[in-house]
Amino acid sequence: AVVSTQSTGEYYPTEEYLFAFLLSCRLFIDPVDVMKQVIDRCQIEQSNPDLPETATVAPHLLLFILQWTETFSNDFIRPTMMERLHEARRFCQTLDPSCSRGCNRLIQMLDNRLTDVKLKKNITKSDACEVINFVRDIKPELIAAQLTHLELDYLNNIACDEMITMLGKDIAQDSLCRNVDKYVNWFNHLSHFVASEVVAPELGGARHLTMEYYMDVAVSCFSLGNFNSAMSILAGLNQSSLTRLHGLRDKLDKNKLQHLQTLERQMSPSENFKAYRMAMKNAAQQHTCVIPFFTLLVKDIHTTCEIKKTKVEGTDQINFEKCWELSRHMRDFQKYQLGVCDLQADSNIQEEILATKVLTEDGMSFASYEIEQPVTVNDKKRYKAFLEKQAPTRMNNSFY
Known about the structure:
By secondary structure, this protein is an all-alpha fold. The chain contains 19 helices and no strands. The protein has helices at about 15-25, 30-45, 60-70, 80-95, 100-120, 140-155, 160-165, 180-200, 205-225, 225-235, 240-245, 245-250, 255-265, 270-285, 295-305, 320-335, 345-355, 360-370, 375-390. α9 (about 205-225) runs antiparallel to α10 and α9 (about 205-225) packs across α13. It is elongated, with a radius of gyration of 26 Å. The two termini are about 50 Å apart. Mean pLDDT is about 85; it is low at about 5-10 and about 125-135.
């Protein structure tokens, strides 16, 4: 159905249909095999003796490949896929020499896209700082703006096919999901960054002010529609190494604490994140940039894959309803990627957030117990277990 043999072009799949198919096909077949089957089918159709002499599949095949390279260019990173592409190019040029110019332009545009991908992959950040020391006199709103810029950078590096490839366990390759992994690692880094800032030993009596500062940053992120950073900061502020510090909590400003609690209710997982989903819908109408809670977005996509079967029960036919549903998720994802943060970017602040070394879980626990000794029975048991665990290493590796 993908390629029509009629030169008049009476039928050709819609762009939405092709997007849904090319996106979802990788769940049940390797894209290389899809390309091979399309080329084989075109060759069979073209050799049909009943085909009018002037009819050729070349224009539609070329259009199909053009849409594929524009939408899922990452597929062509693989050498085997490029071999299939050149096979299709030679086939089109043989059938219709007038296609040569279009074929060459297609190859050039794809080369440019793949070059951009390689450049993004090779971008490195500056070396990590030696001391955890974030500037406290910068307004929380400015930090929230820089986090939003960083979120967009990570989000825009993820291709739609990468999101689906990570679900296809049989054919997924780790190298094809590296940008998803980077985004997940960023979420964890920000969470640990916030917790590390609060328990940093050099803060002394200013510790509660630092915690209040990041509470304000989380609220600002939420107000900007940056839900991923807001959730990451909440996770950092709710690390066990911080929640056990009752003396620290008692010093927090009551009004700021109420704002934090309101934010926690907004991001609560109750009723399948009902409050958050409503906030997302409202934010989409108010902001030019909305950053979804990425983990939940992935979970929603995974749920669709699990609930809806790939094939129609009792047949070998593909369940295209599942393809359409995944396509809808990815179209929404693309809208998030098109977001624009109107607030000014500050590369120095962004670099410091990215480059600052953060404490490991054990490092934060050690710092926490240095700040406040265990009092409750359960806390004393955890402390004893922690010391037994750390005895062989003596806390030589607090950073990562």
